[in-house]
């Protein structure tokens, strides 16, 4: 049965009628259908709207969707089963330029549309590259990380991935702050953190790859991400889901050489050595 996560009952911020409520629909885990799936893009949007909720600009509700049995609230959007999807469920839609509710925009069901919805809040932490040179430079520094991570999983060619990580380390070294651009999360962090988490977990499991210790600025970033960033910690899916996401994306010959296969039963989240069940995490 498709489900709505705990955040639906307890929004991130207790707002008023003057702020919009946003329901973010993401694909559920294929293993435990009531839990978050491992898609890094979905986690990116959880992080972005979490920031808006922390700033009391919106209330955030998170709904996990089992594509085989989607909830009625998702089917009513008529989005052709696309995920993730963000929908303003009540309160003023920040994209609406008139007072006529009939002009309300459709649900945001593409990454570009979700980005436009996010941008409509005009939150400085979530500035887009078109409005912020710093954001543009940060996104340039991280843009090829996931592509080179995927290449490494398929071919074991580590050089491009290490180059991507070194580029991020160099960028971090130029800025005396906790995250990419600030001591607070920005949109670039929302894009980077889920991908780094996948690199660390799946890279080590399938290829024995670890992020080089000599990348000290990046290592410090990881420590802050895992130990001091509640938004990231609570948005993480279970390790098993991340590992299974890549199970069909690595060579069959590699799978036969891996001693331990990813288990369907383990719902831990490993955050720099810390493990715990995914149930009951408050948003």
Automatic annotation (TrEMBL):
Residues 86-110 are annotated as: Disordered. Coiled coil: none annotated. One of its GO terms (molecular function) is chloride channel activity. GO terms for cellular component: apical plasma membrane; cytoplasm. Pfam families: GST_C_2. This is Chloride intracellular channel exc-4. It comes from Macrostomum lignano. The lineage of its organism: Eukaryota, Metazoa, Spiralia, Lophotrochozoa, Platyhelminthes.
């Amino acid at each position: 049965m498709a489900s709505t996560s705990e955040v639906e009952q307890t929004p991130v911020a207790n707002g008023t009628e003057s702020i919009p409520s946003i329901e973010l629909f993401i694909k559920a885990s294929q293993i435990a259908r009531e839990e978050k799936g491992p898609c890094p893009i979905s986690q990116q949007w959880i992080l972005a709207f979490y920031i808006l909720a922390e700033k009391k600009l919106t209330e955030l509700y998170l709904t996990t969707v089992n594509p085989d049995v989607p909830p009625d609230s998702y089917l009513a959007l008529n989005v052709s089963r696309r995920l993730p999807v963000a929908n303003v469920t009540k309160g003023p839609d920040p994209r609406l330029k008139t007072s006529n509710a009939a002009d309300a925009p459709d649900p945001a069901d593409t990454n570009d549309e979700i980005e436009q919805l996010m941008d409509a809040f005009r939150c400085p932490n979530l500035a887009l590259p078109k409005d912020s040179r710093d954001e543009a430079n940060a996104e340039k520094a991280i843009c090829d990380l996931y592509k080179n991570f995927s290449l490494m999983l398929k071919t074991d060619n580590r050089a491009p991935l290490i180059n991507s990580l070194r580029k991020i380390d160099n960028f971090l070294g130029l800025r005396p702050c906790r995250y990419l651009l600030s001591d607070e999360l920005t949109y670039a962090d929302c894009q980077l953190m889920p991908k780094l988490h996948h690199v660390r977990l799946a890279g080590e499991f399938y290829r024995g790859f670890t992020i080089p210790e000599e990348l000290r600025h990046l290592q410090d970033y990881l420590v802050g991400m895992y130990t001091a960033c509640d938004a990231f910690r609570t948005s993480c899916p279970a390790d098993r889901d991340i590992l299974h996401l890549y199970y069909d994306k690595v060579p069959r010959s590699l799978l036969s050489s891996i001693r331990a296969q990813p288990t369907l039963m383990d719902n831990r989240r490993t955050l720099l050595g810390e493990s715990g069940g995914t149930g009951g995490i408050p948003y």
